[in-house]
Amino acid sequence: MQAPSIGGITLPRGNGAVIRMARGSSLSDFADKIDANPASMVQALFHLGEMVTATQSVSDDILELLGSEMGYEVQIVSPEDEDRELLDTFDLSYGENEGGEEDLQVRPPVVTVMGHVDHGKTKLLDAIRSTNVVAKEAGGITQHIGAYQVATHLNDVERLITFIDTPGHEAFTAMRARGSKSTDIVVLVVAADDGVMPQTVEAINHAKAADVPIVVAINKIDKEGANPDKIRQQLTEYGLVAEEYGGDTMFVEISARQRTNIDGLLEAVLLTADAALDLRANPNMQAEGVAIEAHLDRGRGAVATVLVQRGTLRVGDSIVAGNAYGRVRAMLGDHGENVAEATPSRPVQVLGFTSVPGAGDSFMVVEEDRVARQIAERRQARTRKAQVANRRRITLEDFNTALQQNKVEQLTLIIKGDNSGTVEALEDSLMKLDVGEEVNLRVVHRGVGGITQDDINLAVITDAIVIGFNVKPVRGVQELADREGVDIRYYTVIYQAIDEIEAALKGLLKPEFEEVAVGTAEIREVFRSSKFGNIAGCIVRSGEIRRNAKARLLRAGVVINDNLTIDSLKRFKDDAVEVREGFECGIGLGSWNNIEVEDTIETYEIREKPRA
Ligand code: GDP
């Protein structure tokens, strides 16, 4: 059989062999695995219509496409699989030493409160925590750490229950998205005067998808018009049948505001846990669990609330959670008290992480700091790689193409300009564009001043295109935008901006000219000369500065003049044709004298942009 040839390039033949590759691998990584020449793979891919370099991370699709052309079956290893393999290399895995029957001890249930907005979730969480404080800790000042434990009595035995105190569905789904299960039971709050609402149904669906039993709290029974039976009736349609109707779901009537029957609800939670779940864990192992909340605190550094799920977490433990690691310096409970040991289902705030873990990240304690650091570092490297590989965001050209293929209906913009008048004028004119029913335009943010990191981050989240009207990115931000694949379009004339956006919205983007940055220089000193006008003493920050190049002057990211020329260029006393990055030079901008220290001179060329 002949070796496969793509566009005349001969490559190894796979014969259906399976190649496992991490998400975000490059052609070079692929070539390594099959002992091929990376350059031929770049060429082969070029013939398949994709232009990438050998070391660039490529998408799953490209890896699979190229693989199949060569007769390999490419399997992309998911981050979870990779993580399992990573832990394997350290001889670790979650739930490893869970132990046998004899090691398991009963642990408190972990509860999330869900339900429609305004049905009383927050009020209920407040009511529970203030009526049932764990006795030994009473008196401390309540700290919101993202979860708390309360004590209650069932058959004269004191039992604990843990509540996640960020009500709503986001925390619940964020954790599930990260593959960790933190909730044992969902308390579904339904207002007796309102009934089943869209988010009630959503909550039921989330809980069912996660296979988590539900206890229904019919709230606001103190209100006139409260009709608990109607709620019972309504919920049967969603498969929640009350015990009194022959089903197995517990319904409890409460008033969060008047704190009526809170104990009844807690009892129902425990009864449901005992009937439906086997909540036991081995406390005698290195702790594992999940981070439920984390932030950076000015004084204390990274602060993370973790929920211990197995084992016992102790001060001094080496810990790794997602991409973050550290050593537990101190633990605080939900009354701000110091905690030396946290057993299963106990939420504690952990100090000592070197960076902030993500909510929903699993954590585990490992033997040594070194291992924690290595695991975290490898995960970080992997995250970076995956980000780069999947960073294809929308550009105006993509939008144009996608529109022609009927794939999009909304163009999202962020508008930054040099003054509020122009920003408003631009937004107004854009919003007035008449482009038919199919597409619409949404401006998610507008503002005055240079394009900042926040603008780019927002663009990433909302898949927006950034419009810079007479403004430029502040230092470092263009690099961020390039890294994240955010399209920034610069305009200095309003109608040009409008024309282009209109053309894109109509799917008619014309061939265009693009500006290519040549170099930037920072003004360090201003020399005033009566004969030559002001001369800027500069250092070239990037690229090179050439005499006669087109230039613009920026002050704190705002374009002061867009239509300048490098009129004179000197190295010391001598005229120069070009000066490169890192060197000092003197620049004269012809008759333009309005220059100040710290201004940036940017030079550029206009080239016709090749169409994708
Ligand atoms: P969430 O959006 O589900 O967190 O709802 P909140 O806890 O913020 O409550 C929404 C509103 O309902 C607030 O004005 C509460 O004071 C009120 N509320 C909550 N529980 C009760 C209750 O049991 N009875 C009455 N009458 N009002 C309540």
Automatic annotation (TrEMBL):
Gene3D superfamilies: P-loop containing nucleotide triphosphate hydrolases (3.40.50.300), Translation factors (2.40.30.10), Translation initiation factor IF- 2, domain 3 (3.40.50.10050). GO terms for molecular function: GTP binding; GTPase activity; translation initiation factor activity. It comes from the Bacteria. GTP binds at residues 115-122, 165-169, 219-222. The keyword Magnesium does not apply. It is found in: Cytoplasm. One of its GO terms (cellular component) is cytosol. Residues 106-277 form the Tr-type G domain. Keywords: Cytoplasm, GTP-binding, Initiation factor, Nucleotide-binding, Protein biosynthesis. The keyword Cytoplasm applies. One of the essential components for the initiation of protein synthesis. Protects formylmethionyl-tRNA from spontaneous hydrolysis and promotes its binding to the 30S ribosomal subunits. Also involved in the hydrolysis of GTP during the formation of the 70S ribosomal complex. Belongs to the TRAFAC class translation factor GTPase superfamily. Classic translation factor GTPase family. IF-2 subfamily. PANTHER family: TR-TYPE G DOMAIN-CONTAINING PROTEIN, TRANSLATION INITIATION FACTOR IF-2-RELATED. This is Translation initiation factor IF-2.
